[in-house]
Design brief:
It is built from 5 helices and no strands. By secondary structure, it is an all-alpha fold. It has one domain (14-100). The relative contact order is 0.14. It starts with 15 loop residues before the first helix and ends in a 19-residue tail after the last helix. 63% of the residues lie in helices and 0% in strands.
């Protein structure tokens, strides 16, 4: 959820949960739509990062499709770009076919004997 936390030496999550909270407060239909995309992608693929990125892209489409103020649109576009940038490593793993699925764990967390 959080991103670049001062309490975690400027490391942390990908800002997806925080972004969803902003979307729900700013334009609840956009937030619900993005959450629905996330849920559908997660249910089908079991890949959290893929659901997060597609939800961020869906938020752009939704905010631009609805009658929303320009500052809201710009914030969603900027936030979605930020989410995509934070997912660079995930994109590389998706393209390589090595992105872990929900419940599988990451390759880094497995002991050498488990690989």
């Amino acid at each position: 959820g959080h991103g670049r936390s001062i309490w975690l030496n400027f490391t942390g999550g990908r800002s997806v949960a925080t972004g969803l909270g902003v979307l729900l407060a700013m334009s609840w239909p956009v937030g619900l739509g993005a959450a629905a995309v996330f849920g559908a992608v997660l249910a089908i693929s079991r890949i959290v990062s893929l659901g997060s990125m597609l939800a961020a892209l869906a938020a752009i489409v939704l905010i631009c499709s609805l009658e929303q103020p320009l500052p809201y649109r710009l914030l969603v576009i900027a936030g979605s770009i930020y989410v995509m940038v934070r997912h660079r490593a995930n994109i590389e793993r998706l393209l390589a076919g090595t992105e872990p699925r929900l419940g599988q764990g990451s390759p880094e967390s497995k002991a050498p004997s488990q690989i």
